[in-house]
Model the fold of this input.
Amino acid sequence: MAVTPLPSPSTPQKPKSGRTYEAPGQLVGDFLAGKPSTEFGSVLPSYKPGVHLTDLAESLPAYAIEAIREALPAFEKQIKGFSMKDAVLTGVETRTSSPLRITRGPNFQSLNIKGLYPAGEGAGYAGGILSAGVDGIKVAEALALDYLSQ
Done:
């Protein structure tokens, strides 16, 4: 049985149709310039199955590409280093909070829809995994109290 050596993280790979769970990726600088990435810079991806460099414009609709290209420099103005040229856009994920908030009352229930308990980052009540978890616990406790009082 022949053993094929794994490529180094700086070697761009062609998409493998999901067989290896590698994620598509592109350097922020290349993405903003509209050109495919060919090698990693100082930032190496932490995604363990691996990242194959590509042109993300081939994977997303034009309106999404335009919006991301506009948003990255805007975030850079608020968070220095957010759009570092050799940062890696992976599959594409960003670590920002929800641009909206589903309003809820002191009982953690939606003000508009009875029985809906908005929680976590997607509902606008957290800014990361830890705060989303804490918010989820608070909402679960409120839901349990509501259920037990019926």
User: Anything to note?
Assistant: The beta strands are 23-27, 51-53, 88-90. Residues 1-8 have pLDDT under 50 and may be disordered. The two ends are 65 Å apart (CA to CA). Residues 129-148 form the longest helix (20 residues).
